[in-house]
Amino acid sequence: MVDSLSLKSEVAAPAPAPAPKRGRGRPRPSVRSRREGWAAYVFLIPWFLGLFLITIGPIVASLYLSFTDYSLLDEAKWVGLDNYVKMFTEDPRFWASLKVTTIYVVVSVPLQLGFALALALLLDRGLRGLSFYRSIYYLPSLLGGSVAIAILWRKIFGADGLVNAVLAIFGIQGTSYVNNPDTALSTLILLHVWTFGAPMVIFLAGLRQIPSSYYEAASIDGAGVVQQFKSVTLPLLTPIIFFNLVLEVIKSFQSFTQSFIVSNGTGGPSDSTLFYTLYLYSKGFKEYEMGYASAMAWVLVIIIAGLTGVNFLASKYWVFYGDDSK
Amino acid sequence: MRSLKTAALLAVAAMTLAACGSGGDAAEGDGKVKLRFSYWGSDARQKLTEQVIAAFEKKNPTIDVVGEFSDWPSYYESLATKVAANDAPDVMTLEIRGLAEYGGRGALADLAGKVNVADLDQQVLSTGNFDGKQYAIPTGVNVMGMIVNKAALDKAGEELPDDKTWTWDDYIKLSEKITKAGDGSTFGTEYTFNQVYLSMFAAQRGEKFYNNGKIGITPETIKAWWANFDQLIKTKGSPDAAKMAEIAAAGVEQSLIGTNKGVFGMWWSNQLGTLSKVSGSELTLLRLPKAEGASSHGMFLQPAMHWTASSKTEHPAEAQKFIDYLVNDPEAAGILLSDRGLPINSKVLAAVKDKLPPADQQSLTFVDSIKSELATAEVPPKGGSKMEDIVRRYSEAVTSGQQSADEAATKLLEEANAAIAG
């Protein structure tokens, strides 16, 4: 107790002490702080255990397993690059799942970000009860990945669901959208777009960062609302857009729950919602091909790393950080 | 003070480590042998199973059976993970498709001579045999037949067809008539892409699903099978593909027969009970329609599930004792009744026959009346558990018009052959 009290007073005490000397290298830690560092590590043990046992261990194991034929039920047999070769040359479902996932990402991410930005601009107008609206719109982001919402989605877009009930008022007879290969993926894209809250909150924060003097200056120069958006808001917001883009691309490439629940774990009808991760899961746990599933996981890592890399490279050409001297 | 604090920190760390390292206790403090038993099913089945476990423990006070229950969709996922972690339950419930996957990979113990099988139906018992080893004991049997909702049939003003002679054409035409007779909310039939249905359809044409390590069905048969669905959808004898997919996914309770919105449907005989209960209507079981000129209906006795013991169990004797109890003791059957299929032990069946609920009496009578026509289920080879998904996927593609039947039949066979080749 004495210890922690003294610690507190140390922190709280005003600092009349001279500024730290800028000697060569870092100042040597005192005996005391070294001891506290040790204590910190002890307290961090549970976290380290988690990191090594639950995260890094399995990652390393899956790298090894990706070069084996492993059924889960018996020993893993080393097969070299066979899994990777098979994936690229003789597995049409691998390509199908990649196609479905790519369409999902390419369509839903821009839609979602556009929607998020539009709403952020609206809310930024100094609305009364802003925090209320912000929470309401943020809610779907918290729920969107959940099982309950996926089940709800299945009901809404089912044959006797809400959508068809509304259409019936106008005399239109709809189909079961989640069970129709032509529309199933669209319902999942819609679900993703609906979770625009998280990027919206980040956009809102970004909009607050733009000094109002810029807008004043622009309006004195005779810029209208559209011109202000194009010349002030958008350029200054590009770092935020970039951040959201990178985040959402990674996140949506790994989407799993929505398809798993809406399609009952099948990726159906006829593979129209077969997300990459869903296929990976069914290979590993349903078809007894954990080695192959591990290889798929590593290919996914490479794909996502590649996409993120491309994103960063491309960002040089459109993202504007205020302090650019160029 | 310092040392006290250090000690406290170490204690916290030790506790954390201890929490991570618990488990793996073979015997409990009270000297009982702990036997882990995994199974899947509904809440009702869980209750019955807990009762049967309690009855077994009463007879065998030195054994403590711990039930590991899960729902069906996640059952194999969690079981495979346990086996992979060298943490396999001592007694595992599998179904026929899991037999080759687990037995063929050395995960199961040979039960030949370990469990008394003298009173069991030997033909059905053979479905627990793989690679010459008795890896599994069937829990009971089912037959997939055509279930008819008689109330809905009467409402449409149609007669019950003669199931000894009716053909697929008769079935499709009758379904069309029934739908037409109603106001559009009642359908003649619902259909299923169950691989078992395709097996029976092929058997009528003299083809076996698995034949010497290959798929024995011809593309013509698959296309003829799909043509039936197309015809049903076109004539509105059944709902359209998307609606049908939705009904199929919703399960037995939400089926057309169960909700009195359809007359025909192919179901396992043990589902008759649930269907009767949820529909509240009089249902009856029929033989499947036949192909023109076929000599048999292609129907067969399917083991509902299998009892198996892990090859790595530390308590083989206790595991065998528990399985023996489940299949041979009338007390166990008196609790489980037909929940895991109709008992295949003749003595047990005689003892519990009168206790069976009416729906099960009905399916028992049906099975007995057609017994001489029934074949025995074949054990699917390794990779056979992928078949259900393959058949369903291509059938969806064809019925929804995504793929031509010609192309899909070729691809289906390619993929199915590759699945069992590996």
Automatic annotation (TrEMBL), chain B:
Top-level taxon of the source organism: Bacteria
Gene3D superfamilies to which the protein is assigned, alphabetical: Periplasmic binding protein-like II
The entry's keywords: Signal, Sugar transport, Transport
Keyword Transport: yes
PROSITE patterns: PROKAR_LIPOPROTEIN (PS51257)
Keyword Cytoplasm on entry: no
Span of the signal peptide: 1-18
InterPro entries named among the record's database cross-references: Bact_solute-bd_prot1, SBP
Family annotation (PANTHER family): ARABINOSE-BINDING PROTEIN-RELATED, DIACETYLCHITOBIOSE BINDING PROTEIN DASA
Protein name (Swiss-Prot/TrEMBL): Multiple sugar transport system substrate-binding protein
